[in-house]
Structure formats: structure tokens, C-alpha cells
């Protein structure tokens, strides 16, 4: 059992990265990881050595996230007092091209359907194999591959439409 706890601990940085990409909110991401770790530790006796601990923990995180989304749909999010105050508009856009491109990509990823974003994050960001990502999502590898292809195509479309057209140089 101690080995399982060590493997769970080794997954924490990747879980935090994945949670932040899913939620786009550092505080919610930390809460999500904490809930995931609590559940994984409490239910570590249910883990079976037939699969990887990493896939199992990521599946727990994803299930907790999905449960949170369902719960949030049923109850409206409270409006923060800071958001309601006039004059709290964000400062002007950052002019650094790299940061703009990154922000545009992040916004485009948030616009993807949940199932496509989840697949893209596991494969592209967490560098999971197709088989491992399919195990996390509890879907066949073929389904994962088609979702990934649709996610990549949608992401390309979302990021290219806002991109300025470059003129050819003669």
C-alpha cells in the first residue's frame, strides 16, 4: 500500500497541471486536486494492480471535476462583490505576441466541448499514450483518437480565424 501512496504523490504535479487546464482557476484547481487526492487515499484499497496508478488517479480527478460541473449547473455561481463593483475592468491587453498567442490558445481550448478538451489535455499536455488516456476516460482507443482529431481541428479553426493574415513577400 505504501508504494501506491508514493505513486499517488508522484502524480501531484501532473494532476495540478491538468486541473488548472480544466478549470482555468488556480483556486478551483487546487480544490479539485485536494478532493481527488483525498478520494484516492481513502479508496486506495480499490485500486487494482492491473492498471497504472497514474491512470486511476487521473480518472478520479476527472470524475470529481465532472461531478463539480454537474453540481454547478444545478446551483448558480454567486457573483463576487469585486466583480460587481464598477471600475474593475481588466487592464489593457498585454502586447507581448507570445503571451497573446498563449492566451488565445487557452481561450480556444476552453471553447472546446468538455470531451474534446479532456482528451487534448491528457494527450498533448500530460503526454499520456492513447491507451492510457483512453483508460482514464473509460473510452475505447478509437473513440479517443476521433475526439482528439476533432479537438485538434476545432482548435486550429478557433485560433486561425482570429489570426491576422500574413502577406506574401516577393
UniProtKB/TrEMBL annotation:
UniProt organism field: Aquamicrobium soli
Record-annotated PhyR sigma2 domain positions: 8-61
Protein name from the UniProt record: Sigma-70 family RNA polymerase sigma factor
Family: Belongs to the sigma-70 factor family. ECF subfamily.
NCBIfam families tied to this protein: sigma70-ECF
SUPFAM superfamilies, per database record: Sigma2 domain of RNA polymerase sigma factors, Sigma3 and sigma4 domains of RNA polymerase sigma factors
Alphabetical keyword list: Sigma factor, Transcription, Transcription regulation
Domain RNA polymerase sigma factor 70 region 4 type: 106-155
Annotated InterPro entries: PhyR_sigma2, RNA_pol_sigma-70-like, RNA_pol_sigma-70_dom, RNA_pol_sigma70_r4_t2, RNA_pol_sigma_r2, RNA_pol_sigma_r3/r4-like, WH-like_DNA-bd_sf
Amino acid at each position: 500500500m505504501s508504494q501506491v501512496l508514493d505513486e499517488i504523490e508522484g502524480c501531484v504535479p501532473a494532476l495540478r497541471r491538468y486541473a488548472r487546464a480544466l478549470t482555468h482557476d488556480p483556486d478551483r484547481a487546487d480544490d479539485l486536486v485536494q478532493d481527488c487526492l483525498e478520494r484516492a487515499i481513502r479508496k486506495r484499497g480499490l485500486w487494482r494492480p492491473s492498471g497504472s496508478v497514474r491512470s486511476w488517479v487521473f480518472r478520479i480527478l476527472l470524475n470529481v471535476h465532472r461531478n463539480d460541473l454537474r453540481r454547478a449547473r444545478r446551483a448558480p455561481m454567486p457573483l463576487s462583490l469585486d466583480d460587481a463593483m464598477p471600475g474593475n475592468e481588466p487592464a489593457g491587453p498585454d502586447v507581448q505576441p507570445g503571451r497573446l498567442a498563449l492566451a488565445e490558445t487557452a481561450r480556444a481550448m476552453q471553447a472546446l466541448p468538455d470531451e474534446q478538451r479532456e482528451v487534448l489535455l491528457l494527450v498533448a499536455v500530460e503526454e499520456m499514450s492513447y491507451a492510457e488516456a483512453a483508460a482514464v476516460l473509460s473510452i475505447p482507443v478509437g473513440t479517443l483518437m476521433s475526439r482528439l482529431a476533432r479537438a485538434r481541428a476545432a482548435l486550429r479553426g478557433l485560433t486561425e480565424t482570429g489570426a491576422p493574415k500574413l502577406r506574401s513577400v516577393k
